[in-house]
Amino acid sequence: MIVELEKVVNYKDIGFDFKLRLDSIVSFFQEIAIHHSDMVGYDTETLKSMGVAWVLNKLYVDVTEYPILSDKITVTTWSSGISGVKAFREFIIRRGGIEAVRAVSMWTLLDITSKRIKRIPSYLSEAYETESFQATSFPIASYKVDKNPEGEEDLLQTVRFSDFDTNMHMNNTAYVNILDTALRKYIGRNVEVNDFFINFQKEVGFDVEKLTVKFSSQDTDVLYSINDAEYICSKGFVRV
């Protein structure tokens, strides 16, 4: 099943350069993924009543061209496979019929009470009607960043109330906003990201007030980690 949403890039979605922000891109992805679940009868409330929730584990985003203010865009998504404890979802954003952003994501099904990952039941796999093609060739299932950033400078970021979702965990878009903000301090405010990867490793709870972001360069990648006082909460790479 291929799902599409027609959207317009609004003022709230852009940065100072009038281009669609990274966190806004991820917000569009989140919106259409939820819309897909709603369409097949597994909205947020239904999943909650079942004691489970979809949790984003990994995301890779490749930006060819940034949509700008007032652009009409088409956001497309589909399930590209569900097996065992892993579910894969593809995304494309088109501007004027041309692909501007491509992405792939990996999800898990979380037991809300035990906080453990569950095997995804066959009826869920059947409901989402998986497709056999991908938006990008990025090997998200196997890819991981082994090396942690070694930067000496910790870029401090404040966690806000609006960063938290209905599960009282920091929303995926907030991680990307924190990354983007810190990256502009690290490289410069005019930096433009070509592609990035994020692996969510530990939830940020409502009691966390501050996070730090570390960066280091490795070949063409800028490695990063987002950390609370004790642990790495997410890490990945950015290419600019």
TrEMBL record:
Alphabetized GO MF terms:
acyl carrier activity; fatty acyl-[ACP] hydrolase activity
Q: Which InterPro entries match?
A: Acyl-ACP_TE_C, Acyl-ACP_thioesterase_NHD, FATA/B, HotDog_dom_sf
Q: Does the keyword Chloroplast apply?
A: no
User: What's the superkingdom here?
Assistant: Bacteria
The record places domain Acyl-ACP thioesterase-like C-terminal at 154-208
Q: Where is the Acyl-ACP thioesterase N-terminal hotdog domain?
A: 9-124
- Which keywords are on file for this protein? Fatty acid biosynthesis, Fatty acid metabolism, Hydrolase, Lipid biosynthesis, Lipid metabolism, Transit peptide
Protein family (similarity comment):
Belongs to the acyl-ACP thioesterase family.
> What name is this protein filed under?
Acyl-ACP thioesterase
Q: Which organism is it from?
A: Flexistipes sinusarabici
